[in-house]
What does this fold into?
Amino acid sequence: MQNDMVQSGLAGIEIRDLHLSFGPTKVLTGVNLTIRPGEFFAFLGPSGSGKSTLLRAIAGFGPRPQGEISIGGRDVAGLPPWQRDVGMVFQSYALWPHMSVRENVAFGLRERKAAPAEIRRRVGDALDLVGLSHLADRMPNQLSGGQQQRIALARTVVIEPKVLLLDEPLSNLDAGLRVQMRRELLALQRKLGLTTIFVTHDQEEANTTSDRMAVLDGGVIQQVGTPQELYDNPVNLFVARFLGTANILEGRVERAGDGVRFVSLSGEAIQLSSAATGTGAIVLRPQNISLTARSTPTTLPGTVRHCEFLGSQMRYLVECAGTEMVVDKPHRSGDQVFLPETQVKLDINAADAVFLADGR
Amino acid sequence: MSQQPDVAARRPTLANRLPAFLFPRLNPVALTGVIIAIFLIGFLIFPVLQVIHVAFQNPSSGTLTLQNFGDFFATSLFRESFVNSFYVSAVSVVVATIIALPLAYITTRFNFGGSMLIQSLGFIPLIMPPFVGAVAMQLIFGRNGTINLLLRDRFGISIPFMEGLNGVILVQSIHYFPFILINLSASLRNIDRSMEEAAQNLGAHGLRLFRRIVFPLATPGYVAGAALVFIKVFDDLGTPLLLNVNNMLAPQAYLRITSVGISDPMGYVISVILVAFSILSLWASFLVMRGKDYATVQKGGGGLAKRDLAPREKVMAYAVVFFILSLVLSPHLGLLLLSLSTIWSFAPLPDGYTLANYARMWESSQGYVANTLLYAGIAATLDVILGTAIAYIVLRTGIAGRKWLDYLATAALAVPGVVLGIGYLRTFQSVDVPFIDKPLASWWVIIAIALTIRRLPYALRACMAALQQVSLALEEAAESLGATKMRTIRKIVVPLMSGGILAGFVTSFATASVELSATIMLVSAERDSPLAYGIYLFMQTPSGRGAGAALGILAVVIVAIGTILSQIIIERDKKMRTSGREH
It folds into this structure.
């Protein structure tokens, strides 16, 4: 038993064709997902997207899903939660108020019938890990929110689970603490090498912590990849809009001479480097557009409607091609400011525009 | 991965070591549910159905008939009893309201130093069974009691407080008004201040504000309390019996069964009427409450805005509270005096004081006390076990028909003690207990079972409330750390419910130990009698009153200790979980 500490962190998760419904309501549809051993993985989505349900299905809670969930090569779909060896940290921390911190942390080891000496040692190690050994004899209601969070984490990792599931673990903390806990969480995960899934609706949390993430909407996984991949190359409009600010221009991509060009619905055209052609939309990030006065084949004409000074950058709302586009410009002192109602050109780097064909 | 730490989970339980065909797809939890259902049907539903069946049966031929009801209403004594029961219950509700309303209003509305006094003393009546106080009330308010002797002396008048039905009404309303006080104060406290402020902001104030906003929001609580008072008074047997008012329904049922015999249909007809009225008033209060969850308190401030009293108002408030509380405490005071008196008759106060009554009580009542501890102990233990199991099955599992367990257990609310007693006599007279040469109906265990059934609805509510306090995540956390369902129940759910369970136990114990109406029907030998029946026996003779009062004081002390204990437990429990659940 002492030596499976090293092993336990190395389990991956394989989810195949998972369907789940609450009565007549479909909550998860056709979920396929591979989470690699040791990976910090985030489920990101708006509320009601099914991200928590998916996490709970992995832990064994909620209605029994159809499909396959395997952890470290073992199919766990039919197993009750207590046989899955999955550690879960709850949004509310779920510390048992009738047990001291030490008893809370020791609980899982006692369930595993570990020897008293071993329990003492491992509980001590876990509390050291989260830096709260001095609070071992406190009751949970004597702890602050951040401390409760750390104890909940200690209680979970002490059993050396195969995977660690975190259900919006930071949402009950105030903003400053949240950033600090986020870093601690990541450091801890790296140290233990635990395969970890993190559920959040906050894209910044997902971006800053996760190796890869899955964006969910309506019970369907929209896209899986690293934060940068998803941001730079969203596969559909939902992902594009959900991650950061996206300007969407509808129109079509057609061949023009050697390359291709995009023609908006209102008839403006720019050069593009897309391989695909057809009707659809292009996605442009605010910081990938620059404003100039000169017209070139890569510019579209527009009119500044509004500008906001955000400190590090200047945010313009520009009316262009029948829609309103957000353009961010890094701010340096002495920069030229385009005042509202100024006629400008929006310079778009062909490589930065992502074309999404219709139906995506 | 090679090592599975969940050995415990795979250890075979008793159920899966036995052949599978014995338990067709029943897990332990479902099995428990089935056993509980059988128990409830056997000891609650079946006996009551039996009573109803007999009421509609021709006593000689056994055919179904309405003849018994015809006979009932053709007899003038029964008609009178019916009207009297109804009259007494209705007027008791009115009098109880008159007592409770000012107390509830003053405590929730004003910054009043006496609020704590009201909150604690207002509940004291409940810790004394009403029939115990009845004799003491006779001595204080009766024709030749303290008050009337003084009045006659000074003014030459007397007031018939305790004459006939008046006595029952006075005793019952003084005893049961806390139900209205508790429910009404709770709903007044649950009104969010913003409700009142919004109305004020829109121009309402004073009496109009009270009538349009405060009172409607408090109505559900009031109706719940009033319905409870109505049923309790309608069903009560001990008080009218002790006051020798026999022309009411419950005493008539008791007298018919004990004097004419268990084959006489009139006792059953009365039982059906009692059950019907209980169901009717429960249903009426359900209709009023339905869809009116008026707990409007939002995060932050709760309760109506309290204001300070002007000095003159304060004097008036204290006067009102003092008057009501002295009225409410008079039975206790009277009982205490009676228990300490040598002779108390035709005098405002006892002639002399002695402890002899206690000595006599102690000599002759040890059997009663021992029986009470045994019966109430069994009843309370069974109640919390059943209550916890039902609460878990209803709230935490998906077992089909689980709600019916709740309904079955709660149905006991609508069954008066007399009816349950008659049902047991009828049903279990012919059931012989193995190894004991006795029918089940006259075995002492049946008294404990009757008490279990009678107290179960209250214990169940306590357990439900306790389980609802346990957030589901606390259970899931244990399961994901490797505890099986059964281990989770044992290590997390039950310990976290323990405060509520213990409070339920103590309340069940205390109230079961002074219950008379079912017991009086089922006691077959004096050596099986519990305390309440002992008091009843003592009070039958003038010479036994002193010792009866001493026994009554003992009963009050038992219930008081129980009530205080359960309050302490609940408070301590609340303290433990505050901030444990919030962040």
Remarks:
- DSSP finds 24 helices and four strands in chain B.
- The radius of gyration of chain B is 26 Å.
- The longest strand of chain B covers residues 110-111.
- Chain B touches chain A through 36 residues (CB under 8 Å).
